[in-house]
Amino acid sequence: MKTDSGLLLSQEESQQRRYQKGTVVKSGTEVTTINKDDVIYYDQRQSHTMIIEGTQYTIIQERDVVVVL
Fold first, then answer.
1. In what order do the strands lie in the sheet with 65-68?
2. Beta strands 39-43; 48-52: pairing state
3. Which of 13, 22, 53, 58 is the most exposed place for a label (fewest CB within 10 A)?
């Protein structure tokens, strides 16, 4: 895997990266600081993956968001 900064990582190393980048599809009703289409970095160790109507989504809690770009 090649990172945005140009580093090449093996598959194992890329899976060990703690933070993952994602785009918000929808936020919960009590989430106040994160909006649809925000680009975020989140702690992937605290995430859960679900398949809803054939599409895979990652579910996280607001407290596990590290950066909102």
1. 19-23, 39-43, 65-68
2. unpaired
3. 53
Helix (H, G, I), strand (E, B) or coil at 15: helix
Residue 47's nearest CA partner among 14, 11, 13, 21 is: 21
DSSP state of 8: B
The domain ranges of the chain are 18-68
CA nearest to 65, candidates 20, 32, 28, 25:
20
Question: Helix %, strand %, coil % for the chain, to 5?
Answer: 15, 40, 45
Q: What is the pLDDT of residues 39-68, one digit of tens each?
A: 998 888 888 889 999 999 999 999 999 989
Both structure tokens of 52: 């809803």
